[in-house]
Design a protein that fits this description.
four-stranded antiparallel sheet, mainly beta, five-stranded antiparallel sheet, about 375 residues
């Protein structure tokens, strides 16, 4: 009979293809990609790939009832860790919503006065069970190396959907296990597994900025501005200065050398500047903006102090005042970086900053060499 199961197809025990059909199947990019990136090193969910390929190409998918083939082996590709698989796997069909489940590691952020709270990652996965009568008998649990906890598990008897939420990860997956060593296991009389890599922020990627002409910009700075001022300030005080710098778009990789997953979007960034301080920037698309440059303080008395109450008229008018001319500045920066409370294995190292003023102007040449 003809069915249209899509990714939920079962039946890789035996398939019959025409010669042109198998050639088209084996040359399909998504089919080839599964062998390199699919579950279980591309050796699981073969039937899912066939079902999805048929649907994608508007081709019929036929099954024979009763089956013309029987599984008599002791193991199966749908088993977890090669364990025994029952011959009665057709008692229920369990289809997980995601081909690859990913979650992330976070830790409490350092205490701060900017109201930056701990960043939480919640990963939600669902499983569809057929027939509905098997729903209550299906169990969802974490197997393998148990790096995550299931926070919530609900069953919908109308749709046959089990929804699972991972709220907390206890450790990251080792660098040599890109497919994950933790498993999400859906079990009845067999097990359907999905590996779960627990990713974590691991390293910033150096980026240089060629010589750039910048105009000085007056900044009313404090611990919660960007760029931030990390020196001592009294209550309700701000620091008046002129900034000569650029915003570097810094990429963050996970432990597998890939750009940080979107599950970290919104995660706060801290730098180790005489202790962990927020730079008041957040991760977006695996990157964050880092203001890099030099600051020139508002001249001390008799002209005035760079530290004033934020309600002082001089502080209020400072953004529109004449900038302070730049001075020569060179610095080799070595700064630790934290994201979502995780200290990166590789932070900012040997970032060379040069600020050269243009005589009789409030313009400067800013160059950053960082490799």
């Amino acid at each position: 009979m003809e069915i249209d199961p899509g990714w939920g197809a079962w039946g890789a025990l035996a398939y019959l293809f025409s010669n042109p059909g198998i050639r088209a199947f084996l040359s399909d990019p998504e089919v080839v990609n599964h062998r390199h990136h699919g579950p279980g090193d591309g050796q699981r969910n073969i039937d899912s790939v066939v079902g999805a390929w048929c649907r994608r190409n508007s081709l019929p998918y036929f099954v024979h009832v009763p089956s013309l083939a029987q599984h008599i082996g002791e193991t199966s590709t749908i088993s977890c860790n090669g364990s025994s698989a029952s011959a009665t796997v057709t008692a229920a069909t369990i289809t997980l919503s995601e081909e690859k489940v990913v979650t992330g590691l976070t830790k409490p952020v350092p205490s701060n006065t900017c109201g930056i709270e701990d960043f939480t990652i919640t990963t939600e996965v669902s499983a569809i069970v057929r027939p509905l009568s098997a729903l209550s008998a299906v169990d969802i649990k974490v197997g393998g190396v148990k790096r995550v906890e299931i926070d919530d598990k609900t069953r919908d008897p109308i749709t046959g959907k089990i929804t699972i939420k991972f709220l907390k990860a206890s450790s990251m997956t080792p660098k040599n296990k890109p497919d994950g060593d933790t498993q999400l296991q859906a079990t009845l009389d067999h097990k359907v597994c999905h590996e779960i890599p627990v990713i974590a922020p691991y390293a910033v990627v150096p980026v240089s900025t060629p010589e750039t002409m910048v105009d000085g910009e007056n900044e009313v700075a404090d611990k919660c501005s960007s760029p931030a001022y990390f020196g001592a300030l009294g209550e309700n005080q701000v620091y008046l200065c002129t900034v000569y710098g650029v915003d570097q778009n810094i990429r963050v990789n996970d432990q597998f050398g890939q750009p940080l997953n979107a599950i970290y979007d919104g995660a706060p960034v801290f730098e180790n500047v005489s202790g962990w301080k927020p730079i008041n920037q957040n991760i977006s698309g695996g990157h964050y903006s880092d203001p890099v440059g030099s600051i020139v303080a508002r001249p001390p008395p008799p002209s005035g102090s760079p530290k004033l109450l934020k309600t002082n008229s001089v502080a209020i008018d400072w953004p529109n005042a004449d900038p302070i001319p730049a001075v020569n500045f060179n610095d080799t920066q070595r700064i630790g970086v934290q994201i979502a409370g995780i200290t990166l294995n590789t932070g900012i190292k040997n970032r060379q900053l040069s600020v050269v003023p243009i005589t009789s102007t409030t313009t400067a040449k800013v160059t950053i060499n960082w490799k």
